Amino acid sequence: MKKKLVLIDGNSIAYRAFFALPLLNNDKGVHTNAVYGFTTMLQKIMTDEKPTHILVAFDAGKTTFRHKTYGEYKGGRQKTPPELSEQFPYIRELLDAYQIPRYELENYEADDIIGTLSLQAEKDGYEVKIISGDKDLTQLSSETTTVGITRKGITDIEMYTPEHIMEKWEITPDRIIDMKGLMGDSSDNIPGVPGVGEKTAIKLLKQFGTIEKLLDSIDEVSGKKLKEKLEENKDQAVMSKELATILREAPVKVTVEELNYEGSDDKKLKEFFKELGFNSLLEKMGETVEEEQDLQDVSFEILTEINDGHLKEDSSLYIEVMEDNYFNGEIVGISMRNQSGNYFFTLETALSSKAFKEWAADESIKKSVYDAKMSIVSLRRQDIKLNGVDFDLLIASYILNPAESADDFASVAKRHGASAIESDEAVYGKGAKRKVPAEEKLAEHLARKANVVYELKSICEESLKENDQYQLFTDLELPLAIILADMEYTGVAVDVDRLKEMKEELANRLDEMEKKIHELAGEVFNINSPKQLGVVLFEKLELPVIKKTKTGYSTSADVLEKLQSKHEIVEHILNYRQLGKLQSTYIEGLLKVVHDDGHKVHTRFNQALTQTGRLSSTDPNLQNIPIRLEEGRKIRQAFVPSEKNWLMFAADYSQIELRVLAHIAGDEKLIHAFNEGMDIHTKTAMDVFHVDADSVTSNMRRHAKAVNFGIVYGISDFGLSQSLGITRKEAGEFIQRYLDSYPGVKEYMDDIISEAKQKGFVKTLLQRRRYIPEITSRNFNLRSFAERTAMNTPIQGSAADIIKKAMIDMAERLEKENLQSRLLLQVHDELIFEAPEEEIERLKEIVPDVMENAVELNVPLKVDYSYGPTWYDAK
DNA sequence: TGCACCACGC
DNA sequence: GACGTACGTGGTGCAA
């Protein structure tokens, strides 16, 4: 077996882990995030690399021989946070438990130890892998040595071979020190040459080879300023190179042979994980983790008969359905908590209790629940009506902070300081092992849940009021939950026969296309496998590689489009992809979720998920049914009214986000444009390109539309450049010109960012919040992302608020006017109804009326509508 | 079972 | 210069 040495840069990985993960604590208050990250990284290395020899190198002390060369080396560096320092002893303990040798050397850095040992190992015929978070180490890459640098997080490692370095920087590994010498390294305080960054450094090295050769032929450097800088900083460049050079003959006292790895001391390792509270890692080692037993005893009663004495005002009611799709799973238990006690009972008990059913249906008796929509629907499937819900812990938690509201009861409970509760996973198990436990155990768990809801009601209400979000909760989201429950329960009728026809036809076409593609490729392969497709396109057919993914060649649509002219096969693949998507996701996917009784699908809207306040839809997702391409749009022919002589009626807001922007920003030009009913993309083109309406070309309008799109979705210059197929610079200029054209918008963007910085969150028209802590990050990417989020969320979120309000008003109006028409779906800016023919004329009046007047803005809201026998025809 | 890639909507 | 860049859901392939 080939010998393989893994060398790990301990300090660097510890740093990476520390900053990549949130500050975890174990129960003794010791910070453990760096140790945890280090462990997961180590485990990944061990399984991926299976080293025969291994060592972790650490930096020793503060000063090294490099300080003699340059006193300021690593100067100005933030000192190691104490939260990290305190974790180093644990990392050492971890390595000892793994029986992995560690090493540090006075006066030298970990880099030098690694450099020295890797050289020795290469000579002795080892394959070497180096793992670090510091790109400097890539200079050690060679035929036999690969350098892995952690990318985002800690377990995502980018491997640097000489080929990869060549691809990325267009230089050989031994020139990396020259690159560093020229561009410097702010984190190590290596000065380099001012004004020279990565791009310039690479350009110079490609031309001259090394720093020394460059300085010899300095007259040949193009660019006066650059030449001056180089001349001025000659010595500094040479010194910087020296500082960046890893020493390969440090006086290391261990030999490679001594580093052979014989496996971990599992007993020690388990003890260590236990001490630090790494339960998930313990479980991986096959240990059962006993529950934290600070669970308080809960006294409850299992009811076999429910009577008036148990049923009180202000109860919490908890319904448990095991499957997350409550249209498939049945209720496995119900619990209740109120002044008279804490109870558990089965569905059968509930069904046989007239008192319970009346109590549940009584609007005037107030109940608190966790997930009102789920509770209402799952009870309604049993013919039990649930009314009078005035508190929903799931929604309250979501409103208080949409980022943290994982749909997981135990974590919501913990977050708001409720008494401890076991996780569902601990009680029910997971995956294939998931099952309903014995009744006593289930009863206890559910009793605790009802208890938590009961406890948290007033606490959450208080917090909502403090945030000025109580109205959002009671007047918007809670009533909406009831409407969504109705929509879901009603479901949408599907023309199954039509779908099956389409399936048949598509299957034939796909077969033919598959044959054609295989023929053109000269071999049979799986077109759906990006991996196999990549080999065919880029190796066998030798098409140019446009883009790579981290696992291979990219074969995405935008890449294939660029290759269309190069080979006939490409177009066929694009068509195959398009139809394949329709077949698998929309036709087969939809057929899979049609309920046998009545040919309906019952999507579930997740009301507590998105960061902006939008809804999402699953099983099936009815918010992404094709519309753009005719071929796909035909899918909509399969969505039909559920009753004879009814029609589908669809109404959508026109440009709601841009209208919201005009309102929030108070931009006069934009407001004027909407007041005048102008075509907003044409108007934007006029303002951005400084032309009059007649001179706007279709290309100008397309660009303007993309910019508007970018504003609405908060995309970056990069994103805009991708969608328009232009350079990033051009895209940036477009955005700049847009902001120059609409000074009100510019001002809004600036203000909202500073508001986000100051408060830590942004909010929508109806007081929905999104917290954006990254807005103060020193990391450019995180901060930029946060800034775009700050600008975009009030726009998208307010639009979401408005349509939610419209849905509530609409339900009220339909009820008031005694109409049979039903709201079926919401697709972000669109509402879809089914309606008796004779009500269509009425809907044409009231739907736009209600939607356009859901809120009052300083621009008009505009709604378009249409109707027909299928969703397809309602266009 | 989990991740990577791709593609659909707004 | 920063290396990753609206938000969702779902399908298939593939390695573990």
UniProtKB/TrEMBL annotation:
Coiled-coil residues: 496-523
One Pfam family recorded for the sequence: 5_3_exonuc_N
UniProt-listed Gene3D superfamilies: 3.30.70.370, 5' to 3' exonuclease, C-terminal subdomain, 5'-nuclease, Ribonuclease H-like superfamily/Ribonuclease H, Taq DNA Polymerase, Chain T, domain 4
Positions of the 3'-5' exonuclease domain: 286-465
PROSITE patterns cross-referenced by the UniProt entry: DNA_POLYMERASE_A
SMART domains reported for this sequence: 35EXOc, 53EXOc, HhH2, POLAc
Record family assignment: Belongs to the DNA polymerase type-A family.
Descriptive protein name: DNA polymerase I
Species of the source: Bacillus salacetis
